Amino acid sequence: MQDHAIEIQERVEGFRQLLQNILSANLALVSLQQNDEVKRVSAWAASLFAPTLIGTVYGMNFDHMPELHWAFG
């Protein structure tokens, strides 16, 4: 009877280890996907930074800017 209990205990331990390994692999894949998403979002944010900065500076209400008095300004 004790042999059967030990065998079942070892089998359960094996299943637990297998499940732990599967969850670790899934976590690694999700982490890689999140890294790719963060890189993509960061690239878009960096590319939109310069136009946003220029737009905020020139979009303010200044009275003494040469561009305001041009024909196309």
Automatic annotation (TrEMBL):
Q: How does this chain sit within the bilayer? A: Multi-pass membrane protein
Q: Which Pfam families match?
A: CorA
The primary location reported for this protein is: membrane
- Molecular-function annotations in GO: cobalt ion binding; cobalt ion transmembrane transporter activity; magnesium ion binding; magnesium ion transmembrane transporter activity
Which keywords are on file for this protein? Membrane, Transmembrane, Transmembrane helix
Q: Name one GO cellular component term.
A: plasma membrane
Statement: the UniProt record of this protein carries the keyword Membrane: yes
Compartments annotated for it: namely: Cell membrane
Entry keyword Transmembrane helix: yes
Domain of life (superkingdom):
Bacteria
What PANTHER family does its record include?
CORA FAMILY METAL ION TRANSPORTER (EUROFUNG) (PTHR46494:SF1)
- By what name is this protein known? Uncharacterized protein
Q: Which organism is it from?
A: Rubrobacter xylanophilus
